[in-house]
Amino acid sequence: LPLAHTLSPATHLDGDGATACMETGPQPRTPQCSLPSHPPTVEDDFQFVLCEGCRQESPNLKLLTCLHTLCLDCLSENKPMGQCPVCRMAIPQASGIPTMDNMLFTSLQARLKVYKKISTSDGPSCSRCQGNTAAVWCSECEEFLCTKCFEDHQWFFKKRSHEARRVEDLRAESAHRFLEDTRKSCNLFCSSPGHANQGLISSIYCKKCCKALCCSCALLDSQHAPFCDIHSETQRRQEELGTISQELKQKRCSFEATYTVLQEEAARLEQAQREMRELIRQRVEQLMQLIRQEEEELLGLVGAQQEQGRRELVRELRHVEGALQRMEAGERLVEKMSLYATEQEVMDMQPFIKDSLEELQRLQPAATRDRAQPGNFAECRARLQAL
């Protein structure tokens, strides 16, 4: 269905910053309530948009099947190749470079840069004339405009519903509010070849093709059916991710319990090793030089048994730790998708994230009650008794 464009009287900024109504064009939105200024803690709140390897901003962020996000540099330097450097899960691509871009985090980085310009004390400069201080931000053009350039902008786009807001109003808001508002202005474009480049807006979703369509494609091509509203589909996908995330939270408890048991087992094995070493030394030191050789053999046997048990526990600990890290990354990504993702990002990323979350759902923690208890050192005790 064609999108309805509503026009409202525009705000005209005179040289003194006063406002007067113009006859045509969009009006800059003013916040519904006055929000207090926030201290510069944006970097702390949005650390999640950085590469999880180097902790730096990057325009080339990749989303792995384990739901960790890494830049191309970290993936290229990763040793061994083909594994996630965070949780060591295998990367299915032969090149070791995932194909899925984390468009959400890349978009948030760009929008946060805009907010940082707004929050500076001097304020941003006009994107067009480059000379005057900006007074308005147009979210459609993604440009800062001074008073003069904003008047020209209003006249040029008087037939379009561009959304513009005053920089001083944006500066009074938090970064969270700014990101939420900029998300709402994004549109989905038709997925048919050539239509995306023409900027054809889509409000229809074809359940058969699993694609967003413009009105022309939906009406002229009989192959597409049944239809639903694109906003309903994006909402359904968000809810589907939320449901899977809630189920994973419950399963995470069993993994955490297994991880705790394995940690306690590893600590007990270390303690048993230390106690046995001390006992061996106390007994063997009472003997003559001939017995020293037997002491070394016993110590070597204890070390071999301990090393074998340690390797097994380390392997299982890494497996469980990797699963926990993937679950945490999945929960965090679903949360940020719900808070900040545009509909385009939901449409592009949701199937990939859903597959990864469903794979996590199929994991089960290793059973621990049937595990052989380490640290009894029966053979060592028998030989020590013989001495």
TrEMBL record:
The gene is Pml_1. The lineage of its organism: Eukaryota, Metazoa, Chordata, Craniata, Vertebrata. PANTHER family: BONUS, ISOFORM C-RELATED, PROTEIN PML. GO terms for cellular component: nucleoplasm. One of its GO terms (molecular function) is zinc ion binding. Residues 51-88 form the RING-type domain. Keywords: Coiled coil, Metal-binding, Zinc, Zinc-finger. This is PML protein. CDD domains: Bbox1_TRIM19_C-V (cd19804). SMART domains: BBOX, RING. Residues 121-167 form the B box-type domain. It comes from the Eukaryota. It comes from Steatornis caripensis. Pfam families: ANCHR-like_BBOX, PML_CC. GO terms for biological process: innate immune response; intrinsic apoptotic signaling pathway in response to DNA damage; suppression of viral release by host. The keyword Zinc-finger applies. Signal peptide: none annotated. Residues 259-297 form a coiled coil. The keyword Translocase does not apply.
